[in-house]
């Protein structure tokens, strides 16, 4: 029989930084599944910075959210009614039907996750698209080599901390920035990066010179803005930049780097990427990441918000560098 589900909708498009007023809650009836479908109750939801772009009515690599419609995002859920023998009751699945408690979907839109390997939420973090984003950026975009020096901006964030860990496992010297002393301590004490600094404290380029007097080989960019400018100056000849995100300009555009001409003189390679273009690499990534997680070489650091009501505020926290969120931001629902 049908069940009720609460969902979060986009009420209005933000001008600049989003606020709670841009979101609303609704209760809907979720029908029984038809043949080839399942009914899923979500157990954890992902909140991600890229969703800010989907709140704008603008053409991008993913369609914008629609006013009055539920938001979408990564989620892990449990099948509670099935009309497909491939997904029996109790199966945990990954989907893009987040920001709601329950949904019906074709089984083709879902991916089974093995919760005997790791907790369900890990498939939204270090074993999910988050970890894959870092892995692709290092391997296929930056082509990071053993023993190189890499600078990761936003190093305490979801993708950033994964990039730091994967680079360190490879034997690279890792430099990382964050926006609070608590996050810097996490980088130093838990991730054991070679040099960590608060980008609000002191001159950015001086930090990079102190960390790597001979320059850096790779910059993994999660922020854009001033940190990108500093990295351009710190990169060695033939250095590489993997442009993963630009959170410094998600709410208010920031000027481009004033030293962009260094790309020519230093013969730098700058490449942006979207992880959805690389989903075929997921098995290869998991082949490396699952054993590393089991052995303790990788950690799945999360900041957890409890309940659907907490999701909008958790999303807003992503844009406050001084907030306490470290690692992957997860919203947990009752299972």
Shape-level CATH architecture of the largest domain = Alpha-Beta Complex
How much strand? 25-35%
Secondary-structure element string = EEEHEEEEHEHEHEHEHEHEHEHE
User: Can you say what the CATH homologous superfamily of the largest domain is?
Assistant: Medium-chain alcohol dehydrogenases, catalytic domain
CATH topology of the largest domain: Quinone Oxidoreductase, Chain A, domain 1
**Tally of DSSP β-strands:** 15
Quaternary structure annotation: single chain
Proportion in helices: 10-25%
| Overall mean confidence score, pLDDT | 95
Folded structure, characterized:
Helix 2 crosses helix 3 and helix 2 crosses helix 8. The chain has 2 domains: 154 residues, Quinone Oxidoreductase, Chain A, domain 1; 148 residues, 3-Layer(aba) Sandwich (Rossmann fold). It is α/β, with parallel strands linked by helices. It starts with a strand and ends with a strand. Helices cover 24% and strands 26% of the residues.
Topology:
Blueprint: E1 3-10, E2 23-30, E3 37-46, H1 51-54, E4 75-82, E5 92-95, E6 102-106, E7 111-112, H2 129-141, E8 149-152, H3 158-169, E9 173-178, H4 181-190, E10 195-198, H5 204-211, E11 216-221, H6 225-234, E12 235-243, H7 262-265, E13 269-272, H8 282-295, E14 302-306, H9 311-317, E15 328-332
Parallel strand pairs: 8-9, 8-11, 9-10, 11-12, 12-13, 14-15
Antiparallel strand pairs: 1-2, 3-4, 3-6, 3-15, 4-5, 5-7
Helix pairs in contact: 2-3, 2-8, 5-6
């Amino acid at each position: 029989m049908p069940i009720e589900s609460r969902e979060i909708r986009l009420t209005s498009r933000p001008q600049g930084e989003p606020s709670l007023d841009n979101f609303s809650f609704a209760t809907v009836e979720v029908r029984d599944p038809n043949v080839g479908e399942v009914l899923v109750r979500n157990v954890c939801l992902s909140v991600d910075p890229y969703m800010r772009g989907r709140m704008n009515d603008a053409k991008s690599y993913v369609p914008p959210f629609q006013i009055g419609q539920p938001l979408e995002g990564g989620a892990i859920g449990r099948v509670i009614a099935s009309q497909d023998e491939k997904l029996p009751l109790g199966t945990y699945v990954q989907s893009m039907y987040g920001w709601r408690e329950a949904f019906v979907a074709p089984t083709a839109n879902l991916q089974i996750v093995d919760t005997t390997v790791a907790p369900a939420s890990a498939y939204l973090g270090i074993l999910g698209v988050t970890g894959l984003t870092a892995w692709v950026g290092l391997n296929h975009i930056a082509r990071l080599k053993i023993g190189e020096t890499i600078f990761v901006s936003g190093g305490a964030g979801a993708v950033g901390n994964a990039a730091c860990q994967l680079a360190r496992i490879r034997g690279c010297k890792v430099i990382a920035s964050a926006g609070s002393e608590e996050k810097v301590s996490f980088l130093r004490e838990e991730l054991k990066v070679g040099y960590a600094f608060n980008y609000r404290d002191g001159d950015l380029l001086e930090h990079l010179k102190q960390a790597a007097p001979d320059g850096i080989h790779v910059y993994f960019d999660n922020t854009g803005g001033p940190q990108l400018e500093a990295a351009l100056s710190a990169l060695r000849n033939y250095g590489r930049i993997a442009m993963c995100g630009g959170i410094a300009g998600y709410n208010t555009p920031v000027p481009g780097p004033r030293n962009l001409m260094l790309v020519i003189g230093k013969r730098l390679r700058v490449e942006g990427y979207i992880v959805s273009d690389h989903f075929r690499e997921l098995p290869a990534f998991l082949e490396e990441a699952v054993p590393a997680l089991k052995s303790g070489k990788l950690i799945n650091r999360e900041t957890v918000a409890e309940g659907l009501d907490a999701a909008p505020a958790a999303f807003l926290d992503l844009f406050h560098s001084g907030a306490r969120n470290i690692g992957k931001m997860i919203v947990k629902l009752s299972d």
